[in-house]
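Example record

One chain of 442 residues, shown exactly as stored in the release files.
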Amino acid sequence: MANKAVPAVAVRAPHQAWYKVLYIQVLIAIALGVVIGHFFPDTGKELKPLGDGFISLIKMMIAPVIFCTVVHGISSMGDLRRVGRVGAKTLLYFEVVSSVALLIGLLIGELVHPGTGFNIDPASLDPKAVAGYVTKAKEDGIVAHLLAIIPDSYFGALARGDLLQVLLVAILSGFAIAYLGKVGESIAAAIDAAAKVFFGIIRIIVRVAPIGAFGAMAFTVGAYGLGSLVNLAALIGTFYLTSILFVLLVLGGIARLAGFSILRFIGYIKDELLIVLGTSSSETVLPQMIQKMERLGASRGVVGLVIPTGYSFNLDGTNIYMTLATLFLAQATNTHLTLSQELGILVIAMITSKGASGVTGAGFVTLAATLSIVPDIPIQSLAILVGIDKFMSECRALTNLIGNGVATIVISRWEGELDADKLHSAMAHPVALGEEMERMPA
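Predicted structure tokens for this chain:
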């Protein structure tokens, strides 16, 4: 047996001054954002462009990164039956874990009853507060949603940056290149080289993450106020606690079966989690997650399929929120639901939750889509949640991110393509985000 090479990640990085570490900068930025938003709310609202600008910078790179990653991953696999096998396993895993998340949200809602005692009359609520969400939910019907996956042109998908459209174009391109033999290998190499350019741009953008997190948090607290948290503390606390238990028990159990610790994994992606906390969007770290999962020992082909697909089909935090919030609204408006109605909500949520992207606010639109199909719960009751949704979206995004990372490792191991030595070495010696991206092979 050949001697195993010592993983490069085992080499410790030179000590870096604490104030230069990115996750510490992001933590400080988040704290400053909360202070500014709370004591100077008008100033906090005016800082919104800082957060929006950072999110836009990252989003402009997501389409090309996903396209290059998926195309190269599929075309480099060689055996296209293997691509189908990985895809089938991925979708099966997503469906099982997502359904568990939906069921847990439903069960916790029944056990805790966070909406009991509100006694809200739906007629007293302003329907204008949720009119935009309801309109969008109705426009995004199941048939319309499926047809929207098909872009109006090949480059239109890349230009708009719609995740599902980009995935469709990338998968078709990957299969086509795989059939071209030697010519396809040259094209795949060129696409891989282009991906390095895009990741280089992201290395530059990620340096301003603290500024983006500062602006986004200052706006959130300034616009909605910490007082809104007190009014609906029962729901917020229940949702956060449920998500934490889901991560530690469900994802933790899955991680243990796959041979790693969920706590070590969370420590490994702490930089990304803090950026998501500041921006309320898991999309802001999608490119970095792709590289970090490869560094953990997952094969490039599996990473290229699982991570982008998970951002639309494996949203554990959004699923918990959907069923928990639905029961909360029913309880708050004294709407009695039978067991069959609750099971119906579960089935509807399984459908409406698919395809929701990782952008901030997408979970609220998906909840509106679910309620628009369930006539029993007054849809104007969504107005109760408008003021706290930004705070809820942070927890949704964090849970979604952890869930997709765990899924990538599990599918890689399921395929027999996980380097266990590399996995444990990387988790034992994590490095900062900016340095992490610089270490990726050229």
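Notes: The chain is about 75% helix and 0% strand.
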